[in-house]
Predict the 3D structure of the following.
Amino acid sequence: ILRAQGETKRFLKVLAEYQRAPSVTEKRLYLETMEKILPRVRKYIAKVKDGGGLMPLLDMRMKQ
């Protein structure tokens, strides 16, 4: 039960941030997710339509 309550509190904090600044929150969540998953993959494939809609992929291996 305590874990579920903690997850709910974290979600509500993110929701409040999203309501104040949706674009910033979306980008932050995207970058945090990429930071977690990119170090585990060797190849990155990005589909770009008309050069838009793609946030730059950061080379997380450079941090190590």
Notes: The longest helix spans residues 2-20. The two ends are 37 Å apart (CA to CA).
